Amino acid sequence: MATRWTLTPAEARGRQLMLRDRVVTTDDHGPLRSVAGVDVGFGPDDQACAAISVASYPGLRVLEEHAQSTATPFPYVPGLFSFRELPPLLEVWARLDVQPDVVICDGHGVAHPRRFGLASHLGVHLDVPTIGCAKTLLCGEFADLGEARGDRAPLVFQGEVVGMALRTRDRVKPVFVSVGHRVSLETACEVVLACARRRITEPIRWADQLSKQTRAPGDPPIS
User: Fold this and answer.
1) Domain locations in the chain?
2) Distance CA 35, CA 59 (A)
3) pLDDT greater than 80 at residue 87
4) pLDDT reported for residue 30
5) 107-165 pLDDT per residue, tens
6) Is the bond into 58 cis (omega within 30 degrees of 0)?
7) Which of 51, 103, 140, 176 could be joined to 207 by an S-S link, Cβ 3.0–4.6 Å?
8) Residue-wise pLDDT tens digits, 11-37
9) What is the dihedral of CA 200, 83, 26, 165, to 10 degrees?
10) CATH code reported for the domain at 22-211
11) Confidence band (pLDDT; 50, 70, 90) for 212?
12) What are residue 164's phi and psi, to 5 degrees?
């Protein structure tokens, strides 16, 4: 049965609560030889441009990239971004020649008020290993961490560790890493560090660059 995306915010929250128990927070994947970054940008008339960049891992050689402009079926509602971003992402995912071994999302996984952010939603929907790597904090608190690359501090929300504040470069703001699906938090941090030459990971940076090519309605898809 096809997923219905035209939900009310209350229905969307209910779906998050229903699906979150399907999230696997341990390593449940084979060898990681490729990694993807996904990002969604928004342009005129709320047009979404979803992008995916796939690279070899850990060498980070670009293997495949796609971007697609499309309408989004869901409004801007904090905490429900996955319902706004996932449908456009599924369109570009369908264009991949080879499925990546792990996906890094520009957003949160279980570091979410209902433990089901974009990375978890994408992972559960497609049943693929996913990692949340966000630039801003959505929920939780963390202690001071050192200034060196690799320094980290647990992100705690309602008495539970839901992610990690992770320094990816010396003396830059940390990113917030969390489990999406079928990846442990330890592995998620390892993959993010291996892919980060700047503050954010290279696959997400490449996807972000693609998504900024948002076209006006009626323009042909980007590829």
Assistant:
1) 22-211
2) 10
3) yes
4) 96
5) 999 999 999 999 999 999 999 999 999 999 999 999 999 999 999 999 999 999 999 99
6) yes
7) 51
8) 999 999 999 999 999 999 999 999 999
9) 30
10) 3.30.2170.10
11) confident
12) -145, 130
Closest CA to 70 of 101, 97, 93, 100: 93
Residues contacting 104, CB < 8 A, separation 6+? 35, 36, 37, 38, 119, 130, 131, 133, 191, 192, 195, 201, 203, 204
50: which 2 tokens? 């979803």
Q: How far apart are CA 123 and CA 70, in angstroms?
A: 21
Predicted pLDDT at 147: 95
- pTM here is 0.92
Distances (CA, A) of 104 to 34, 82, 94, 138: 11, 14, 17, 17
25, 59, 51, 171: CA torsion to nearest 10: 70
The secondary structure of residue 219, as a DSSP letter, is S
Rounded distance between C-alpha atoms, residue 47 and residue 221, angstroms: 12
Q: Are 178 and 155 in contact (CB under 8 A)?
A: yes
Name the amino acid, one letter, at 162.
V
